[in-house]
Amino acid sequence: MGLYDWLTGKKDKSKITAEEPLLESLIASGCDSLNVVISRRDIEAGDPNGTLRTLRQLIDSRSIAEKFQGQVELSVHGYDSDPRELHEISEVRAFFRELDEAFPFWFYFLSTYGESFLLVLAFCLCRVTKMGPGLAMINPGDLQEFLEVHYGAMNHVCDKLGISRSSNARVSADIERYFGAAFGSK
Description:
Number of strands: 4
Distance between the termini: 42 Å
Mean pLDDT: 87
Structural class: mainly alpha
Helix content: 40-55%
């Protein structure tokens, strides 16, 4: 049983294995952040395996997890000329639902600085009501569930990897500040 199976208690149906320890190589070269680029081709094919191959390395060990805590960005390539927001594209929403089912540990790893992908992820995983041009609102019940599920996933990965409660509390505070700022609350 791999660490992913141990962390989630699930069988890994995709049998993804990294052929080379990409993140260990990046750390050895002095890299301290990671931008995972997701292609339109992978999204339209409904194939998160390449992305998962990279993301799952983040939970290979405590040292890798701690090194990349809050240092991961996601970006989507190939929709620049599409006038729709990513959350308005059904294939994008489906891709991120599948990715999230396999790797729900975003709160620990994704950056909370600047225009973080966390908000895009929330819009993709929750029901959204379009309020007007360029304006949309996440269903409050869905947002509450999104927060609970992802705080729980973060707590689980921290417990399983032996990451301190104080580190977990600091990251939780960062997430709370991020979403509070995004939705206009304290």
